[in-house]
Amino acid sequence: MRIATPDLVTNSYFPALAAEELGVFREEGLDAHVQLLPSLDAVNALRDGGVDFVAGGAHTTLLAFPQWKGVKLVVTLSQGTPWLLVVRADLPARRGDVGAVKGLRIGAAPGPDRAFLHLLAEVGIDPARDGVTIGPVPGALDPGASFGVVAADALERRLVDGFWANALGSETAVRRGVGKVIADVRRGDGPPGAGQYTFAALATTETLITREPERVAAAVRAIVRTQRMLRKEPARASEVGRRRFPPAAAEIIAAIVERDLPFYDPVISQAAVETMNGFAQAIGLLATPVRYDDVVATRLSPLWSQGTRELTPPR
């Protein structure tokens, strides 16, 4: 089973990687591997049969599946808009002051940059008028690169003045003393609703759900069990980090996962889908509203709360 993700070194899509590395997919009878692909490449590969699932921002699925035709979200990996706004530590910017980005160079990856641009629009900032330069950071598009880690390095080297990236990237910059968090929209910073623009989800095709329903169900069960395991033993995240992350990121992933435990909830709520679709319409990814049942594989929803057998992962 092939799972594509636009970022491996992240807390946002972490349950998918942890399910592989801690043996949860294997215990569900799946030979699964999570591989890194840029956001657009990942969803195109899902559409074209190159991968079986994508673990990424839910709204990015629309890049390859207009109007949600032919695809379904099957489980949430982590709730809420997963990116934070970080700027240089020496700038006179305060928490919640998104306007502090005026005149700055902000790094943002393709895909997440759409959420950042919408955030700016909602607080009345026009990048052209207000001198905000937004684009990938140097090296972030290299094969195997993780945007958050590369962004923290670029901030330290003064190649950018700030970035919009996952909590692992922001925590790296903060711990190095080179950056500070201006907005964590999941926790209420920024305009109302910004924390629900999108969420991290596992998506697959309707074809695979129809052809191999038990295989898809096994993948959902694995994610749910992994989230439960992390809530019970967040320190297990370090095992995953040591196998798949750069050393510096591996050292801090467990602390970030523990802090983010409230977001590791598998339920895809109707409210979350409605808000995400509203965001997708606002940025031109969705032409008209789409019903919840046309976005989510509701036949699998009992697995989100169903009593699955307890997992004792191999150590």
Describe, in plain words, how this protein is organized in 3D.
This protein has 315 residues and is of the alpha/beta class. Mean pLDDT is 93; it is low at 307-315. The chain is globular, with a radius of gyration of 18 Å. It has a five-stranded mixed beta sheet, with helices on both faces. It has two domains: 2-80 and 198-305, D-Maltodextrin-Binding Protein, domain 2; 84-195, Periplasmic binding protein-like II (D-Maltodextrin-Binding Protein, domain 2, 3-Layer(aba) Sandwich). It has helices at residues 14-21, 24-27, 39-48, 112-122, 127-130, 147-156, 167-176, 206-211, 213-232, 237-244, 247-259, 270-282, 302-305, and strands at residues 2-5, 33-36, 53-57, 71-78, 84-88, 105-108, 133-135, 162-165, 179-184, 200-205. It has 13 helices and ten strands.
Strand and helix layout:
Layout: E1 2-5, H1 14-21, H2 24-27, E2 33-36, H3 39-48, E3 53-57, E4 71-78, E5 84-88, E6 105-108, H4 112-122, H5 127-130, E7 133-135, H6 147-156, E8 162-165, H7 167-176, E9 179-184, E10 200-205, H8 206-211, H9 213-232, H10 237-244, H11 247-259, H12 270-282, H13 302-305
Parallel strand pairs: 1-2, 1-3, 6-7, 6-8
Antiparallel strand pairs: 3-10, 4-10, 5-8, 5-9
Name the descriptors.
315 residues; alpha/beta; D-Maltodextrin-Binding Protein, domain 2; 2 domains; five-stranded mixed beta sheet; 13 helices; globular
Q: What strand order characterises the main sheet?
A: 2-1-3-10-4
CATH class categorisation of the largest domain: Alpha Beta
Structure annotation, total helices: 13
The succession of helices and strands, N to C, reads EHHEHEEEEHHEHEHEEHHHHHH
Number of strands: 10
* Rg, Å, rounded: 18 Å
Percentage beta strand? 15-25%
Shape: globular
Arithmetic mean of pLDDT: 93
Structural class: alpha/beta
Proper CATH architecture of the largest domain: 3-Layer(aba) Sandwich
As for the number of domains, it is 2
The CATH topology of the largest domain is given as D-Maltodextrin-Binding Protein, domain 2
What level of helicity do the residues show? 25-40%
